[in-house]
Automatic annotation (TrEMBL):
Name the record gives this protein: Transcriptional regulator MraZ
Domain SpoVT-AbrB: 5-47, 76-119
Membership in a protein family: Belongs to the MraZ family.
Subunit structure: Forms oligomers.
Protein species of origin: Candidatus Scatoplasma merdavium
Source taxonomy: Bacteria, Bacillati, Bacillota, Bacilli, Bacillales
Superkingdom per UniProt: Bacteria
């Protein structure tokens, strides 16, 4: 399970170092995808397969569902986590997420989210201010 947040820098070869606590759950093959909130998500092969199955179940006859599948899979790449815990982030995704140098790596239960540090800091200020309200809204669904 991935939890916690860590600040790292992306290197000149478009790699980030995964926190040591995350490495045991990331095998050599990982998947990097553009995700909501302008972040990248890194999945183990097993967890990416679960996510892909959910998308597979969407209808190709529904325009919104078809668009969602197309956006997700066209912005997903197979990558590697090497012996030093470095994951190569595809350059097109780095640009779309607005990551220049510093990033925040966030555990998100079954995957790792990677945000541009400035974007993450701004988002968290807004989210933490409304934490109680968000909790109430989700609980009352």
């Amino acid at each position: 399970m991935f939890i916690g947040q860590y600040t790292h820098a992306i290197d000149d070869k478009s790699r980030i170092v995964m926190p040591s606590k995350f490495r045991k759950d990331l095998t050599s093959k990982v998947y990097v995808s553009l995700d909501l909130d302008h972040c990248l998500s890194i999945y183990s092969e097993k967890d990416f397969t679960k996510v892909a199955q959910k998308y597979y179940e969407l209808s190709d006859f529904d325009k919104k569902e078809r668009a969602l599948k197309r956006i997700f899979f066209s912005n997903s790449y197979e990558s590697t986590c090497d012996g030093s815990g470095r994951v190569i982030l595809p350059k097109p995704l780095i640009q779309k997420a607005g990551i220049v140098k510093d990033c925040v790596i966030v555990g998100n239960i079954d995957h790792v989210s990677v945000f541009a540090k400035e974007s993450y800091d701004k988002m968290m200020l807004e989210d933490e201010d409304s934490f109680e309200t968000l909790a109430e809204q989700v609980a009352n669904k």
